[in-house]
Amino acid sequence: MKEQYFMIKAKTLHAAFVASLPVMMGYLAMGLAAGVLLAGKIPRPDIALWAFLTSATTISGALQFAIVDWISQKTAIIDVALLTLFLNVRYAMYGLSLLERFRGISKWKKSYLIWSLTDETYALEVECAVPPGGDPVKYCIAVAAFDHLYWITGVTLGALAGRFLPFSNRGIEFAMTALFLVVLTDQCRDRRNWIPAAIGIAAAIAGRVFFSTDNMLIPAMVLMVTAFISCRKHLEKVFAS
Known about the structure:
By secondary structure, the protein is mainly α. The chain is 76% helix and 0% strand. Helix 2 (47-57) packs antiparallel against helix 8.
């Protein structure tokens, strides 16, 4: 029985690793860019340690890039808190669809699954390609842990490269923006997705018109959320058709 248990557990771990391989390619690449940027803008002898700590506690690509400017510009903590909330509020919506699957599990497991949730991890957890006899919760924890490890590795290696290899990091902060543009372009191929895209673009333009570049993000995010809530019924009809 023990041998069979360990075989099932190993199969679950293997399935989670295989499923996470596409995420590994993306996280290592984006993590390297974030680490190089961190080392370039904050030249400290111990920057690799700080890269490890920030990536271990912040599993968010957008925040990992933003945190570099926040540290270098000494951004007020209230601004950091609000920006973090608005950038990551979507994960609360993701979590609602996983409540039933994770009901009744221990607090530490649930806490880790909540904290480690990212767009890519969520997609894998929803698919949940657990092998026959495997535990869906253990599979999801393994997926989250692998993705977390890839991100830490990418950012830390990027910081080491940026610290010791002499090359220009100019423009590297555009990597995250470029990724979002690729995702947006792909999503907009579905004609139904042009409305959310238009709302986001309009909110960004309004934020830039009425506020400075440094202060536009929070008002733009507030405007976007308000517009989505106001258009919720219409959007539900559009996506239901």
